[in-house]
Amino acid sequence: MKIVGAVCILAACLGYAAALTERQKYHRDVLLSLIQILELLAGEIRYERLTMAEAFRNLNQKYRGPAGEAMRRIAERLMDGTYENLESVWSSIFRKEQKDLMLSEEELDILLDTGKNLGYLDVEAQMNHLCHCRQRLEKKLQEAQKDLDEKKRIYRYLAVAAGVMVILVLL
């Protein structure tokens, strides 16, 4: 009976470590999806020459990643006829989604900066702006990947140590 209990405790600790690792992976995936969205948006602006509302609608149809829900909400608000400006829609949606997307304040600032100049500048200036924001997000993605690699190992070791400690206390 004690062996079964010890195995269950160790499995629970390792499961918790796996859940923490998955949260870190989700954060990395969100950053990757935001980079992909900026690339797709740049293509919509450069080649399609659409309005921003149409570009976001097309983007929503092409992309369904972790940040896809935010893009869908932006597209809906731009198309609903209330004539809000893109910067305020972009800002409010990403502020609401910050917790769900697990964005840090610095990452949110990059996204809010991205939304400031969309739709106002000529095509070339918007492309440069999107490229700059994408590069900043790519740096954050590299940091998140490095953080994931470090924390994954730490989570596993701490889970095993905590499990063994609990087992020893209970025996």
Topology (elements, then pairings):
Blueprint: H1 2-48, H2 52-62, H3 68-79, H4 86-101, H5 105-116, H6 123-170
Helix pairs in contact: 1-2, 1-6, 2-3, 3-4, 4-5, 5-6
For the largest beta-sheet, the strand count, sense and barrel status come to:
none
Percentage of residues in strands? under 5%
Mean pLDDT: 85
Cα end-to-end separation: 11 Å
Categorize the overall geometry.
elongated
- Poorly predicted runs are none
Per DSSP E runs of 2 or more residues, the count of β-strands stands at 0
SSE string, helices as H and strands as E: HHHHHH
What Rg, in angstroms, do the CA atoms define?
Answer: 21 Å
| Helix coverage percent | over 70%
SS-based structural class? Answer: mainly alpha
- Total helices: the number is 6
Structure write-up:
With 171 residues, the protein is mainly alpha-helical. The chain starts with a helix and ends with a helix.
What's this entry about, in short?
The chain is an all-alpha fold and 171 residues long. Helix content is 85%, strand content 0%.
